Amino acid sequence: MPSSTGLDRLVRKEVSLGAIREKPVPQNHIGLKYVPWKDVESDDVVFQYIKGGLQEGLAPARAEDAEAELAQKDELAYGSGRAAVIDWSLKDKYAPSDVSRFRDALLIQQEINGTLTSLNFNMVGRTVEDFQARLARHDALRRRKLDNRIEWLIMTGLFVGSIAYNDGKIKFTVNYGRPGDQTAVTPASGLWNTTTCDPIGDLLAVQDLHYTRYGVRPKRGIISQKAVNSLWKSSRFLAAVGVPVVGGTPSSPLDPNYLGLAGYNPQGALAIVSQATGIQFEIYDAVYQTRAIGSATRVNNRFTDERDVLLLPDMGDLADIDDTELGFGKTLTAPHPEGNWQPGYYEWEDETKDPWGHVRGTGVKAFPVLPYMEYTETLRVLP
């Protein structure tokens, strides 16, 4: 979390080194659970800051070489622990008038405390508190955008199989090497919002394919609530709970949505799927918000495509194939000088250009590496 220290630095004008150290995961983010942090001693690519993107819900990239190779599908590269990371960062600038007003109010409060009237003291105290709250609010927002960016990187890599970034200034593409016939595949029985679909049969077919190709069966999955809601409309689930089905169509005049049968609901259908296939699904629908410059409308952007179901390998099976520190994948994070050369999030403050102005920033050098993406698959289950 952003450090509570440093408020007096506005008066003393000292440079902060690494007030942010921890790497907590936001409650509605799950990416680091599947691709956890891994500290590395150095990074292959050093990036320079590129300004912009402050209206977005994600942190912008900063790169020295837009064509730099950020990840390789190469056994030698991964085996040697070669890591490629990106520096993601944001900053807030406080004008000299903001700093001077806070500084004067702080000095008045500290030096003349007890001699002011109650009204004036409350006004001075409120000025100090308002500016401190503003700093804390901006610190939290910068951190949130960085957390969103890490989640976007991980989920884009897992669901799409590659990461394509282009903000108009920096452009790069990282391909993690998942076969094309394992990405956004239409299920064999058809889309899962039809009464004739066979989700269990589709998942068993994927497991058989992966075991034939790699000797590893998918046993974990990430799915949207919308995809879960479509499962129980299948005639197979209706028949499983005792609704007469003729020719793939329920013969009962009752609407299945209102049957009220025990276990007959989206979660019940998902439980049946998990029991039959051994795949443990996690429902995930997290979003980040963006707002266009000049607009008051905020737009929710998903980290994943709600039409897709992601299937991941069983970690126990994978351990028999790979015993490296990377395992299925890691989010590599490298040291930064402003973080006292420690990996993870870091903080900086800059007061050298204008002795009365003030700049605060937050950043992290991090990028996901996924060496076993061929053991994953996405099914495009909804239109």
What can you see in these coordinates?
The protein is α+β, with helices and mostly antiparallel strands and 383 residues long. The chain has one domain. The chain is built from ten helices and 18 strands. Strands 1, 2, 3, 13, 16 and 17 form a six-stranded mixed sheet that branches. The protein has a four-stranded mixed sheet with strand order 9-6-12-18, sandwiched between helices. A two-stranded antiparallel sheet has the order 4-5. α4 crosses α5 (118-160) and α7 (225-231) packs across α9 (266-277).
Shape: globular
Distance between the termini: 41 Å
* SSE topology string: HHEEHEHHEEHEHHEEHEEEEHEEEEEE
Overall pLDDT metric? 74
Please tell me the total number of domains: 1
What Rg do the Cα atoms give?
A: 26 Å
